[in-house]
Amino acid sequence: MRSRLNSLFDALLPVLATLAALAVGAVMLIILRVSPVEAYGALWEGAFGSTNAIAETLVKSVPLLLVGLGICIAFRASVINIGAEGQMIIGGLLATQIGIVFTDLPGWLVIVMAIFAGFLGGAIWGGIPGALKAYFNVNEILSTVMMNAIAVQIMNFMLRGPMIDPVQLEKASKIPQTARLAEAFRLPRLAPTRLHLGFIIAIALAILVYILLWRTTLGYRIRAVGQNPHASRYGGIRVRRRIVTALLLSGALAGIAGAIQVYGVNYRMITDGSSTGFTGGAGFNGIVAALFGQLHPIGTIPASIFFGALLVGANKMQRAVQIPSALIGALNGLVVIFVVGSEIWRRKRQKVRLSAEDSEDENKSPPLEPDTSTDIPEEVIA
Amino acid sequence: MSPELVIVGILTSGIRLATPYLYAAIGEAFGQRSGVLNLGVDGQMLLGAFAAFYVTFTTGNLWLGLLAAVIVGALMGLAMAFVTVNLQAVQGISGIGFYLFGLGMSELLFKMLVGTVKTVSGFQPIAIPVLSKIPYIGQVFFEQSIMVYGAFLLVPIAWFVLNKTTLGLKIRAVGENPEAADSLGVSVARVRYFTVTLGGILSGVAGASMSISLLNLFQENMTSGLGFIAVALVYFGAWKAWGVLAGALLFSLINASQLWMKVLEVPINSELASTLPYILTIIVLAMSASRVRSPSALTKPFDRGD
Questions:
Q1: Is residue B303 in some structural domain?
Q2: How many distinct structural domains can be found in chain B?
Q3: Do B65 and B56 meet the contact criterion of CB atoms below 8 Å apart?
Q4: Cβ contact B225–A145 (<8 Å)
Q5: DSSP element (H, E) containing B144
Q6: Residue A355 at interface with chain B, using a CB cutoff of 8 Å
Q7: What CATH number does the domain containing B118 carry?
Q8: Shortest CB distance from B108 goes to which of A139, A142, A330?
Q9: Mean pLDDT across the stretch B294-305?
């Protein structure tokens, strides 16, 4: 009974953190002489007020969910991936190239190939920092930041050069964008709204990631590495490889987000010179969603929809009460700070719980399974 | 254009452009030497840049503008310190929170209070008597604005404070072995509050150096990730003030060369060329990570257990 109450409290922490952030937002609104009731009312209206609004919310949640799933895998392995922006871009570029080159193939085949291309692009862009961390001890936070910057420049180069829309080449304006994808290549719509098949794909992937992390040996090893790399190593888990795998999969999911953004929403790639021009900040907001979902793939689904709603509703709020939608960006930051800041109470109670369990001598954590492979365990990662 | 003029031009802009990297990275270095990774530098810079711009824009006083950036930076630093020291939050992630907050907040305030891009008259270059008359060298080093001189003066000061003072010893002790420092009566919490707040102030000044000295305007997300590069420069420079200087100059000189290549219409692809410093940084990190040791307690919260 007490443990159930405890886990309920744990699940409520992010909700309380968000309420706190919204309360700070309300104070800010009052300072800006806008009624918070009116502003948040407009936000709700914009996110859930009509069928179209709900569809837009779900559309917006797709990249957040896909990036967030990747974050779940990486963070579970104790790897901080802040390179989702770049991974989305490279995934999007490769996927777009598929649609430009294979114009003769059937639509469903191109879509499948494009999603795979997105997977591949993101996997490469996540795998490089993974290998750098595992084998060269390069901090993944730094390398993923660098990879983001490189990806943006590659995107700008490709869209101004090799991948530019032939129509734009003849114009003086030379807008840096690719040609539009053929109608047959676009992800099918689910209703007479902009909601597309990508939403279903993302939900399916969430279930797959859940199975991967909690029902397979690979997932078990990834989580073991995250919880205790030293114990994992003595348990025979090849820690370096699992770090690479975690970042690679994390990047791959972001890459799919990039592919789906192109094939489900924009139907082309266009750049304003920055990464957010393409990703809409999903690479960072996906982290927020994953944290909110307790780094659990299934929990990340409602979390993504929630943050998708905030982002979509922010536009309506901007029109209705003239509060720039950037307010929501700032509040998202506060949510992150409050969530990680409030973890201390969870940890403290966990400590109390563990010592209580110790005295009752029950519920010992299961021993790590031995690796069946005959490989020599790797030496200690410095 | 004669080659000497081009080289002098590249060096002059290179020195100028190193300014925000230096302020932000030196500030970050103080935090990291004490064991705190502040990933919110970019957000602190943006808020500092806006504060400096807005106060200068409304009062016409550059020094008030700079003061505003210092205050805003200090507040952000204090908040970061509270979250890392008292709440013992995961530093990499709380830093992202501060980044998102600064990014959103600076854009919100800019749109509400200013609206469209406007310019201010920023700090002007000051020619240092005699020295500025030295051919070539004078123009490169001694005809810069006060913000640029300040950034370069900060490097030896930071080196001195970290290596030659009791304060520096405390900072390094707290970053290497907080338990030992604590048992010797050094307050880990106080040292970290000091370094992280100082880091916030210097990030704010770094932002101000962009909005009221280099570019003389504010735009949403005008740093475009420069603060993250500053964090990387600390690793690049192996947590040493001079190493940070070398890294900052690498980035700024490559940036400056690109600007000049555009002016001279050199047929080099500017997008691909601008990936160079990032690739170089990754290579340097990969080569040095096994040899250079980071502060042992970096990113580890300290719990006195009371």
A1: no
A2: 1
A3: yes
A4: yes
A5: strand B143-145
A6: no
A7: 1.10.3470
A8: A330
A9: 84
